[in-house]
Amino acid sequence: MRGTWILLFSLALGGCGLEGPRVLRLSLPQAELTAEAGARVELPVEVEARRVRARLWVEGLPEGFAPPPLPLEEGKRTLALSLLAREPGTYAARVVAEGDGLRREAPFQLRVAARPESVLEGVVYVGVAQALAPQGVGGGIRPCPEGCPGKPLGGGWYRVPKGGLPDRPVRAQGGEGEPLFPRQWGLALAGFPEAWARGRGEGVVVAVPDTGVLTAHPDLQGALLPGLDLVDGDADPEEPVVGGLQSFHGSHVASIVAAPWNGVGMAGASQARLLPIRVLDTEGSGRESDLILALRWAAGFPVEGLPPNPHPARVVNLSLAGAGPCSAPLQEAIDEARARGVLVVAAAGNQGEDYRDYFPANCRGVLPVGAVGPDGRLAPYSNRGAPLLAPGGNLGLGLEAGVLGAGFLPGQGMGWRHLQGTSQAAPHVAAALALLLGMGADPEAALGALLAGARRGPEGLLLHLPGALLALEGGGVALEVAGSLELRPGEAGFLPVRVLSPTPVPVEVHPEGGLSAYLSPNPAKGEAVLRVYAPEATPPGLYRVRLRAEGQEAVAEARVAQAPEARVLLEACPLSGACQTLTLPREGGPFRLEVPPGPHRLLAFLDRDGDGALDREEPWAEVQVSAPARGVKLLVR
């Protein structure tokens, strides 16, 4: 009986038919997708395949958007197709399932939006002293705490170390002369009288960090604002009379800038207000740390231990110089002042050498000034290569070929004397900027007009106020490139470029010798970054990239060499994905990276041996930032 039932059951199964109908169904729960460029997006797909050998794929999208075809398993299920939104646009596409003569299609639309710009911008500084804190300068003159050792200085202040700031010597850039009251040939040579009909610089504050001033001098009365003394540590910038070879350098420089037109003595090149800061002793010597504090205080920054400055300067005149490169703390102070719109003018130096070997004239963002005599020729003592020349005197042509300024004459008291130097040239330029600022020009337009309107001579550009006024009316455009590049084939480098203009202007970039280069941003106003790339096959040599805007031109130089050169490498790494590496000059500089939004690790190091790797003895710095971010600082030490 058991065998009969088994047979009947087998016959019943055979009578039902094992193959049945073939089934292939396809549908999309979501027919419209959106994504940002570069992102992945999941497309849900509902599919059913029965008794069909089929495959699933996407048609209608550009190459690289869709995954490869996918074989379908028996049954009904929901799948997720991963699409890569590579480029912005709107794409009409379809999902296709096909097999054994059956084909099903389901249309969908993919909208890919451009990813918002995400950048990391900042500056890499190299060579910061170990004790320098990145958040501030510190040190200097501070209030004497109760019970502090030593004797407080005048006004309840106390002298303390500068907290790791450099203390290289700085000296006034001027000479001595005999007392006399000649004509002021420098004003006529630079065209100041023609400019006075348009503006006098009234209300503009010009800071003069120097040896201090003779506050009782008749040619400084009414021009001086409350100042500071960082040598003795009080609020009295008076230069003491000690005799000897004392030149009263600060009073001489200040009177060139803005001796009042009061019917007494000389005429200042402007009628600006003077903010005196004593940073040099009576012999014209001082310390870089005091200069850094003076810059920050003059620009209106709060400095620990110093009283607030109620009269922030718009121009700072630095008629002083020291040997060596611009230090990182000094560069940072200048960068911060320039970020507030403060213009910084510096004497090129009196050594008859390349000005780039002397600070602060070689600092980024400073306008260095060389000196000419009454004949308009470069003075023998003046350092070479400065972007602007101005009357500084040449006593080799006679006493009257010096520059007149206020001083103290032994045995006679207050008077006037002739000196020569780039110290005397710089205040002419500071006064010219005060005139342009007083006429309503913004800092970049004033600086651009001064350079664009200068007269071209055999040794460089000579200050010319009428030309500056014309340039200001025409937009005041000028270009400045800071530094040069040392590259090896296959490397890219970056240089800071300043586009001096009241409005953004398009800049043409013309590299030579097979180099590639671009400026970012472009059109530009103010600070920009020039990227220069030397392809692998670039022969060694000196190459130039010419920048042109509104008829003005600047040249960036890039030397391509195969020998390893020290440089700064900057590496930016997201939490996931590939890192980016930039090459900067060995002294660091500005950088701009286009990166995906989100956290990044920034590592900068001085690659001394050119091997591209951080070695044990090479200085480095690291910070964590989240993109987009601007104003990032790395202090390599």
From TrEMBL:
Originating organism: Thermus oshimai JL-2
Pfam families: Peptidase_S8
Family statement drawn from the similarity comment of this UniProt entry: Belongs to the peptidase S8 family.
Gene Ontology terms: biological process: proteolysis
One term of GO molecular function: serine-type endopeptidase activity
InterPro entries in alphabetical order: Peptidase_S8/S53_dom, Peptidase_S8/S53_dom_sf, Peptidase_S8_Ser-AS, Peptidase_S8_subtilisin-like, Peptidase_S8_subtilisin-rel
Domain of life (superkingdom): Bacteria
Keyword presence, Lipid metabolism: no
Location of the active site: 210 (charge relay system), 249 (charge relay system), 423 (charge relay system)
Keyword entries, A-Z: Hydrolase, Plasmid, Protease, Serine protease
The Peptidase S8/S53 domain, residue ranges: 201-437
Protein name: Subtilisin-like serine protease
